[in-house]
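A common beginner's mistake is to predict each chain separately and then try to dock the pieces by hand. The better habit, illustrated here, is to supply every component at once so that their relative placement is modeled jointly.
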Amino acid sequence: MSDSDVDSIFHALADTTRRDIVTRVMAREQSVSDLAGAYAMSFAAVQKHVAVLERAMLITKDRRGREQIVHGDLNTLRKAARLLEAYEEIWRTRADRMDDILTED
Amino acid sequence: MSDSDVDSIFHALADTTRRDIVTRVMAREQSVSDLAGAYAMSFAAVQKHVAVLERAMLITKDRRGREQIVHGDLNTLRKAARLLEAYEEIWRTRADRMDDILTED
DNA sequence: GTAACGTACAACCAAATGGTTGTACAAAAT
DNA sequence: ATTTTGTACAACCATTTGGTTGTACGTTAC
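With all components supplied together, the output reads:
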């Protein structure tokens, strides 16, 4: 996973509408227009949000007839979650070293 | 935690330099100019990145003499991590319901 | 007291973002 | 066959972003 992949994942999550889309499609797959119907903005705007999430690989699309069905991608979400946990781990490790230092006198 | 708080946290994390700053300050607290020295960009640019992280509450600053010492804020990181885990939970719950549906015939 | 250091902030710039409307086209329904 | 539906995409716009340089100011060192 390159830096720019991670950039795009967090960027995709840095918007309330997009996080809400993720919530919806994790709960149940649905078409782009189902999603568009849920927000007070143009279809094109929602479609752009979907495209951002798709580029970030947080969702995938699957054509069904004339509809495009949007699914959540659990794998990418897990990667993002693990990344944040890695920062906690860095902190924990440093804390341990701090502890070493404090107890070494 | 408001939506815009979450927006600012993920936005702050959506940049390689800023994630690197988080890594550094989680490992060891350091001054703004220590950080600035580590990147091939102006002091002002690094200072802006630090300001973005500070607004997102991912770091805090603490004046020590003429230096400004930057610390990582584990708490905010944990909140972000838990948020991502919540999406996984939504997915898991839906999966369970799927399972219910598949076994109910 | 003066010089150097660490920081903050304003002004500026190019590029990206998040929204809009309009057009185009394939699939489905009539 | 025609209309409606679902989607994609371009063009446009205002705002934000991520960088720059320059200025200012308090703190430390000489």
